[in-house]
Amino acid sequence: MAPSTNAKSLLSLIQTSSSLLSLQTLHAATLHRHPSNLSFTAALASRYSLLGFPQFSHYLLSTLPFTPLPPFTSTFSFNLLLRAYTDSNLHDQALSLYSHLLGSSPGTYPQLEPDRFTFPPVTKSCGYLCDVEAGVRIHKDAERLGLVGDLAISNALIFMYGKCGDVDAARKVFDGMSEKNVVSWTAMIGCLGRNGKREEGFRLFKRMVEQGIRPNRATILNVIPCAVNGEEADELYSFVIRNGLQFDLAVQNSLVGMFVRCKKVGFARQMFDRMPVKDLVSWSSMIEGYGQNDMYLEALQLFRDMSMLGVKPDSVTVLGVIRACANSMLSCLTHARFIHGFVIRNFLDKNLVSETALLDLYVKRGSLTYAS
């Protein structure tokens, strides 16, 4: 049974909430008006996760009364819970729940049947799990119900096949779509970029623009890895500026990585220096970029600058500077000991990857004593 008009309004407010405070206010309202309601619990869990608070989402989902499954009264409530699992990165649970509905596991619900809202989240979960076999089965289920032509389902299938590395299957879905939106193009561009077909991905982006489809932030983040030379990097950067996306932190970080990859390290550093806000990804990208371009002294100096500003690196950042030093003929034992001391002071010495990289660094500097 679908929710009443008032309940629908509250659900809509939950699903469009844009801040933790507003969502918590709505959460309190649901506890008062709709205690122990599966649909509201699932909707709240999804929104908490999408706003960046998965710990709240996981807690809510852990409170559901499984006997062995929650008491679904409609496909609507089932879909809300399925989406909550996917949004909360609980992908195994999403697949398990879907299997229950289809009758391949105990505790099935014969009165419920998947609809067009069932398939997008569970298909995405298959992608995140890189479970192409489950993805193909779900694709066939959607075909059996005559739902493959649905735009959201087709987009999810492109995403799933792309994450699973089956570019041909993704392209077949994409080419067979009678209607495409920005999500369709973005998913296909991302699929090509992730699977080593960068030039094809960049060409598809240009075709998208030529056809009048306006790329969004997600499109830019997916096409940036497709740039393979300075000319393409400059073209993308100009596009970002023209469309006002240059102030987005994730886009800025990706652009820094792009220019480094395209051997325009000086321009990457200019971008880095102009960033009003830098996160750990920003610092790590620039340090790793210096290392990839044999600029070990610059990598080490930036690592020191980062430490002096109180930005605490993680194992990824440390690994970047260790590799930069290990691969340079100019680095010395003093630098190796400086990095090693930093690793110990910041309790990163228990990381197996960092330990292995330090060992490699000492061996290359000819210090078997420190290596041992």
TrEMBL record:
Lineage start: Eukaryota, Viridiplantae, Streptophyta, Embryophyta, Tracheophyta
GO biological process, one term: RNA modification
UniProt-listed InterPro entries: PPR_At4g14850-like_plant, PPR_rpt, TPR-like_helical_dom_sf
Protein's name according to its UniProt entry: Pentatricopeptide repeat-containing protein
One Pfam family of this chain: PPR
GO MF annotation terms: RNA binding
The PPR repeat ranges on this chain: 150-180, 181-215, 279-313
Keywords: Repeat, Transit peptide
Superkingdom field: Eukaryota
Residue spans crossing the bilayer: none
